[in-house]
Amino acid sequence: MNRRYRKTIIAGNWKMNKTPTEAKTLIEDMKQQLDKDVYKYCELVLCVPFTDIQAAIKAARGSKIAIGAQNMHFEKSGAFTGEISADMLKEMGVKYVIIGHSERRQYFNETDVDCNKKIKVAIAAGLRPILCCGESLEEREQNVTMEVVRKQIKIALRDVPAEDIKKVVIAYEPIWAIGTGKTATAEQAGEVCSAIRDCLRELYGARAARAITVQYGGSMNAKNAEELLAQPDVDGGLIGGASLKAPDFVAIANASRQ
């Protein structure tokens, strides 16, 4: 982390878990267990299912926990049954939205071009997009990780102007480490996050690149968070399973105090 230049952001991705009642209970547990001074070190975000957003925002009142969404459509409105627009999220009080998670790409055929459309619409609506990128196990074994990640970022950020790039958060999530219990070593995570910043530097210049938060996702947990966050270019985490347990999520937040 380098808090001199950029925010440390610890974000939970609940995926398709928790009813509104369960969301309320979990957030209340988190609020009780979080020390007030943790907000000096990091920003906390919970990206919850759409059906939980209203309950989550209400439960988070009195804290500095921001609520995010896990997806959105790139059209403002229209005949898109089952989809949610950026304006709908913004009016509910959502602050962040995850874009291009590997599960969206794998199961719902989302592309880098789709991500590009969504990012621009999210920014225009006043949301902060968390852009996910990462390689498969096969791509890592073929030693093309950097090429894959650079391609994802360049396409997803196409025509995003320099004045808006500081609103974007990048989350490096190696696909082979999501939900598998496998985790990239701190050195592997740091290496790719550094390469992401190099790519951003090429696109937007050194000053803009050093101000962008680059998270690590992929089985970050209470045990490995401190080591991962010690890497200079790892500015937080996009947390899956560990964000569904109050003590684990709080422990990860506490690891940002270093």
Q: If you had to describe this structure to a student in words, what would you say it looks like?
A:
The protein has helices spanning 20-33, 53-60, 86-92, 102-108, 112-125, 137-141, 145-156, 162-165, 186-204, 206-210, 225-229, 246-255, and strands at residues 9-13, 43-47, 66-69, 96-99, 128-133, 169-172, 214-217, 236-239. Helix 5 crosses helix 7 and helix 7 packs across helix 9. It is built from twelve helices and eight strands. The protein has one domain: TIM Barrel. The model has no long low-confidence stretch (mean pLDDT 95). The protein has 258 residues and is of the alpha/beta class. It is globular, with a radius of gyration of 17 Å. Strands 1-2-3-4-5-6-7-8 form an eight-stranded parallel beta barrel, surrounded by five helices.
How many distinct domains? Answer: 1
Helix content: 40-55%
Broad CATH class: Alpha Beta
Broad structural category: alpha/beta
Rg from Cα: 17 Å
Main beta-sheet strand count, sense and barrel state? 8 strands, parallel, barrel
Q: How do the SSEs run, as a string of H and E?
A: EHEHEHEHHEHHHEHHEHEH
Kindly, what is the distance between the CA atoms of the first and last residues, rounded to a whole number of angstroms?
Answer: 9 Å
State mean pLDDT (0 to 100 scale): 95
In terms of DSSP E residues, the strand content is 5-15%
- Name given to the CATH architecture: Alpha-Beta Barrel
CATH homology group: Aldolase class I
CATH topology: TIM Barrel
The total count of strands amounts to 8
Instruction: For the largest sheet, list the strands in their spatial order.
Output: 1-2-3-4-5-6-7-8
Shape: globular
Number of separate helices: 12
